[in-house]
Amino acid sequence: MDFSSFVTSVGTSFLIFVVLVLLYVWLSKKPGNAVVYYPNRILKGLDPNEKGSKSWIQEALSSTEQDVISMSGVDTAVYFVFLSTVLGILVISGLVLLPALLPIAATDHELRNVVLSGEAKNKTFTDLDKLSMANIQAYKHVSALRANALISPELKPEQYAILVRDIPPVPEGQTRKEQVDTYFKTIYPDTFYRSMLVTDNKEVNKIYKELDGYKKKLARAEAIYAKSKATGKPEGTRPTHKTGCLGLAGKSVDSIEFYNDKINELTPKLEAEQKSTLREKQLAAALVFFTTRVAAASAAQSLHAQMVDHWTVIDAPEPRQIIWSNLKIKFFERQGRQYVVYIVVALTILFFMIPIGIISAFTTLKNLRKLLPFLKVILDEKAVRTVLEAYLPQLALIIFLALLPKFLLFLSKTEGIPSESHAVRAASGKYFYFSVLNVFIGVTVGGTLFSSFKAIQKDPGSLVRILGNSIPENATFFLTFVALKFFVGYGLELSRLVPLIIFHIKRKYLCKTEDEVKAAWTPGDLGYGTRVPGDMLIITIVLCYSVIAPLIIPFGVAYFGLGWLVLRNQALKVYVPAYESNGRLWPHINVRIIAALILYQVTVLGYLGVKKFVYAPFLIPLPILSLIFAFICNKKFYRAFHDTALEVAARESKETPSMEQVFRSFIPQSLNYEKNDDDQFEDALSQVSRTGSIV
Amino acid sequence: MDFSSFVTSVGTSFLIFVVLVLLYVWLSKKPGNAVVYYPNRILKGLDPNEKGSKSWIQEALSSTEQDVISMSGVDTAVYFVFLSTVLGILVISGLVLLPALLPIAATDHELRNVVLSGEAKNKTFTDLDKLSMANIQAYKHVSALRANALISPELKPEQYAILVRDIPPVPEGQTRKEQVDTYFKTIYPDTFYRSMLVTDNKEVNKIYKELDGYKKKLARAEAIYAKSKATGKPEGTRPTHKTGCLGLAGKSVDSIEFYNDKINELTPKLEAEQKSTLREKQLAAALVFFTTRVAAASAAQSLHAQMVDHWTVIDAPEPRQIIWSNLKIKFFERQGRQYVVYIVVALTILFFMIPIGIISAFTTLKNLRKLLPFLKVILDEKAVRTVLEAYLPQLALIIFLALLPKFLLFLSKTEGIPSESHAVRAASGKYFYFSVLNVFIGVTVGGTLFSSFKAIQKDPGSLVRILGNSIPENATFFLTFVALKFFVGYGLELSRLVPLIIFHIKRKYLCKTEDEVKAAWTPGDLGYGTRVPGDMLIITIVLCYSVIAPLIIPFGVAYFGLGWLVLRNQALKVYVPAYESNGRLWPHINVRIIAALILYQVTVLGYLGVKKFVYAPFLIPLPILSLIFAFICNKKFYRAFHDTALEVAARESKETPSMEQVFRSFIPQSLNYEKNDDDQFEDALSQVSRTGSIV
């Protein structure tokens, strides 16, 4: 790729970005779009334009971490710590490396003559020390954020509960409920509150969903009927629909009557199913509630049974993020599933290597012309050529990577992980390995191998030499890849063009009731599962290529700077977190930042080694130092992210919590439909003095 | 080594063994020797000859596991589980492998023609499965032993305490004691009993030891004086001694007066030092006591501080096995020390490779004659030659290995491990690596390399071939090594000749008081630190060589069979355990048994591969299966050995324990001299209602 096509690519990207930002400024001011651009504020009951006079950039820059936490939770705040840490790393790297490395990269083979480089080495050294220290500071900060969130007097039901799995078979003459209660009452005579058995809710969920669907349809039919009264004849037109396949075939019926019949038919069925679920479909898992946070935090960390695969406990996830269907999976089945999933992921990574390698090899123009000579006429057209050269490979890559996250999340859930946030972290880890291995190594090595295949066939020993020499050729690929991602990606993110269009279409043609309209604009969450590994890929690429193409550093800075700005805006105004893990994703991020740093340091070593730079051996301690830093971080901080420290849990809120409210918040919606005084709950309730307020 | 020298060696060993056993039977019946042969019974207040009519073999065979536990504790019982498991493995291996492998080993190169071998493979397969299953059974059994020991209503003070280290600096305006008490009272308002700060006892220990020494000397002088009254003149001779170097020079003084003066001088000094130690020499560590076992067990497993390197807790070791001087070492210093020790151990292993290699190379007669031709005349003497061939190499090896354990124990304590039993386990692990690497690999490879050095110099590629072919030559070396170890080693063990001689000399010439006599016969413990790795080395050698020299299996069976018998006798009658870790050494043993099995399976594979045995690939799943078994064992059982399961701790004894007795049992002797109502203790005592009985 020559310089002109590179400039074209970056220029076009920038132009698209400017257009999208202008679109955002214009569109976000229209009141009708407020629900698309300020849903988080609206859902929290705030005025969308509360800081009306400031521009969105000013707003984002002036917002504090506390603002982010109150609007979007600790996880989002931790994500910004990540963005700013990486930004800091790149800015420092840029300040130190650019003046030193640009001349080296420019003169290249006269490397040994560059007097500057000894100095550069020393600078890099202190620089890298700073980076590691910054990492420890960031870790400390996030740890404090987490502690504060856990200390907060706000009632978090999950802080009073533990999740118990692998309960052994019920002994003769006892019910499951008695078994669990006896076991925990013996161990915790003073702090045990009550237990909630996990049930197999598949059937009841199905009926609940069906019933809920009919209720929504009924509301919709009634809205249509009411509207027809207002607009047309005063007696209105009763809506009808066909009962056959997709509402296109079969007998035509009066919708309101039909749905009412269905609801009347399903309601008793649901109640019967709820009863039988609570009584007969109890699984070998339970939630156990304690009267104090310390008791729950301590119980979650303690071994309960002499056989480690019985009565296993972990801290309870938030009610909203429990993956109920995974709770019944047994200890060794979970282990087994985990390894099977690892193998599947490994195979996926290897299997995708092939298409990505082919794509990257095909999508350099020279290769295209070499392999498909009949395209020569089109490819020699200057305009076509520039655009193709600029976008083809990057686009293929981006689309390709977008297909994967759902599959990886599915795999992670298959492992038997009991909480949504944990599954997302697991998927994110897999996605990171996938993207780094495939995109970074696959494109670099694959592209190189393809073009040099014949040379290698003649002399296999030349492989190392070819790799060492030809990696720089791919640098511009990644430069444009990064530019495309941040300009177009963040432009689309900020302008929310796609959600805006979908919302307006839905509102105009599909939505009949208020609930439907709300469902049409309700935003998702920030989506760490794909966002974090995406960012990690960028930081890895930027760091590794910074040695051979230092120009990539400003692009990296722009990516994380723009990202911080745009996402700050989105976090404050748009996205609503689906769960809160109190920063548990940080150790995951931190270890990968350090991994990227080590990969970077090894690349520097290798590159300087290839270039026969005499001071290269002095850099060998760097990766070792980074490893020690990673080790210290892990030892000093990690466990506080896995377990709740008792000193944190011990700062009880002054008020006695409503234990009943805690308990009820864990009852699945489908079991808590209209009556919630069924046996299991009623039995337990009657044993407890009702001290708290009942909601 | 030819067959005759092999027979000579084994025969001589057996003869020595028979003589030693006969000596034992004769000597142990003399009443004057009872304290040497039955010290454990005597110390427990039992009649040494309670089962007088039975022979020692009958007694050992008829003893139950419960007998072993009541006489020598759970650790010893676990050691016997280890011996019998290994014995079982070898008996099964012998039954299956001997009929199949003996003909193979005999016919060797016609291996492919042996029809039996397919069958042998299948047998080995099911056999190995059984071995792994036996391992799981053994693990389950030991786990139950541990649980029973922990459930027992007998008061174990360490079950009510945790050890807290890395206490942060004392906040302004608080004492260390207040800091600790406040911290734990906040977290455990109901179950916290009191705390005991760890102090720097170096000075007070020194004075205490000096004072104690003078007291013993005074008692001795008084005994001499009393005796002189009885035998000589009625007024007696007052003993005197010189105060100078070694009691040989200087002024002659009246011993009784002199020691009384010293004691009167030191007693107030000790009291003053005790006071100042308790007040001023407090360290950043403490023992914290709880009123229930569950609270202590749960606290020991929970994270207390948000910064993982502050307020670190572990379960308290038994009072008698706390290594007090290690308690002050800080979190990251412990980590650092650990890695430094690992490096030192690795260097030791590598460094010792050289002398052992040289010894083993020199000590084959052929080599001696080759290298030291002037010895030819002596070496060609038939008698000299046979004896030398039989014993030289093995003796060098055994003496060599005996030097090491103390050094490794010292290194393990340097790591900062807080309990004696843990340090012994750590040392035992190091000793295992050392002995397997050095003895097994060093002697095998070293001996082989030395004799083939010239061949390799000419053609380095021949190394693999030489190794594959020449390992069998070393088999007889190990055969005699094993025979020597069990016949002579267990003979000496049973007959206790060395302790017997030392005891009689001491009693006759040195001991004057009853205490001194008792000190002369008080036995040590079984010494797992060196015994376990020694046994592990034997099982590794026997398993690995069983393929190429199946005759080694009966030797292995004899080693573990005789070992079981002799040590059962010793455990019931002689040794007194120095501490009780409730079987915590088992996981350590189990993982090494499986490691030996895997090494064995890989050896089989390699050997059959070298011999081009067509069915060899079918054996590849074996090591993988073993790994899975190891994984399952570890997952299912290990944590119950590291932590105390709460269901076990929850079975409280009916009686309320005397919490004061629990507390007092942790006070170091040197601080608890005559007055024990000093400030620290008194302060704490006054806060507690004295519910329990005071001892």
UniProtKB/TrEMBL annotation, chains A, B:
Instruction: Specify the CSC1/OSCA1-like 7TM region domain's residue ranges.
Output: 337-607
Q: Which UniProt keywords apply?
A: Calcium, Ion channel, Ion transport, Membrane, Transmembrane, Transmembrane helix, Transport
Q: Tell whether Transport is among the UniProt keywords.
A: yes
> How is it placed in the membrane, per its record?
Multi-pass membrane protein
Q: In what residue span(s) does the CSC1/OSCA1-like N-terminal transmembrane domain sit? A: 5-141
Q: Could you tell me which residue ranges the CSC1/OSCA1-like cytosolic domain spans?
A: 159-326
Q: Which GO terms describe its cellular component?
A: plasma membrane
Q: Does the keyword Plastid apply?
A: no
Q: What is its subcellular localisation?
A: Membrane
Annotated GO molecular function terms are:
calcium-activated cation channel activity
Q: Which domain of life is it from?
A: Eukaryota
The protein's predominant localisation is: membrane
Q: Where are the transmembrane segments?
A: 6-27, 77-102, 339-365, 386-411, 431-453, 536-567, 588-608, 614-633
Quote the Pfam families the UniProt record gives.
Answer: PHM7_cyt (PF14703), RSN1_7TM (PF02714), RSN1_TM (PF13967)
Q: Which PANTHER family match?
A: CSC1-LIKE PROTEIN ERD4, PROBABLE MEMBRANE PROTEIN DUF221-RELATED
Family affiliation: Belongs to the CSC1 (TC 1.A.17) family.
Task: Output this protein's name.
Answer: CSC1-like protein ERD4
From which source organism is this entry?
Answer: Ficus carica
